[in-house]
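Researcher: Structure for this, please.
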Amino acid sequence: MRAIKARQVFDGERLLADGSVVLVDEGRIAGVQPGGTPLPGDCDVADFPGATLLPGLIDAHVHLCADSGVGALDRLPDFSDEEMTAVIENALGVQLAAGVTTVRDLGDRRWAVIEWRDRNGRDAALPTVIGSGPPITSPKGHCWNMGGEADGVTALRRAVQERADHGVDIVKIMASGGANTPGSDASRPQFTVEEIEAVVTEAHAAGLPVTAHAHALDAIRYALAAGVDALEHCTFITETGIDVDDTVVASLVEAAIPVCPTLGFVPGAQPPPAVRELLRKAGSTNQSRPQIVAGLHHAGVRLVAGSDAGISAGKPHGVLPESLIHLTDGGVSTREVIASATSIAAEACGLTGRKGRLVVGLDADLLLLDGDPLADITTLRNVEAVYVRGRRVV
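Model: Predicted structure, token format:
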């Protein structure tokens, strides 16, 4: 058994008493006890006197097949199987170095991430991977080159069945277009309510949740009407700009579904040209976006941390700390921001009872930061140590 001590402990929801100690045994949390309580006699003690201990972070929106370079999504078909495996494993290593111990992959190329997950399971000293496989999209729609095109209700039902057969953890549908696919329009829906509803019905019959990529305001409306379980981006784009419709926000609150706004970019980085043009047409900026997202939070929308990591040089793997920092720029408290990447993210990803909190029986995925992220959120950049299932890996 190992005891891990730090100056303070955040359990995924709240700050514990100073000096609290987390006990780890056989890859799981065996105890969380107040400071000063006698430790079991056979304990090895790892002491981090200036650090904050918290659950490992969860990035709920990544693309492990994308290598964070220019045109990363466009180049996916160019990789051999061996090159794709190397890209995935390099991405996971970078995520781990940033304190991320679980990732939800929401768009791979022809099952590459799902197959990697199945080959490696819990054995690799890398983040836990859950994934969607290729996102379902319209013919030549957003991210069509990942292999998920489908047209019409019958084909959409078959697409869901194919994902269930491959053992995905979640189904993703591109309810709107996106900036990074030429010919795709982020301000317009790609599917009707009936088509999205067919996906939801088929997925739920297979025991799978559905999340919808939705930049367009109408796509958000359609996805909500169809009964999706989560939303990605949720940007409220129309043909004339951003319209954060109060009735739609109220529907999001009533539905209580998690929204992953995919904030975050490397400080000083410029978005790709297509994204810059989208922002210009929408009248949005990288500075105004956190304000809008924080407004959703204050209205009662459930926010989940995710970065869209891997899609560009400005959004490389390991950028989740910047996503959380940007969220505080909008006025969300540090405690709520960190919870969005731990306990709340675990619930949204279907990992309650496994990840996201410092509770007896859960996986001992732990992050130690040099300093106090509750007082200064930029402390998230100061990774001192990372444990995956009780094994120190960083």
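Researcher: Any notable elements?
Model: The first strand starts at residue 2 and ends at 9. The chain has two domains: 2-55+356-392, 57-348.
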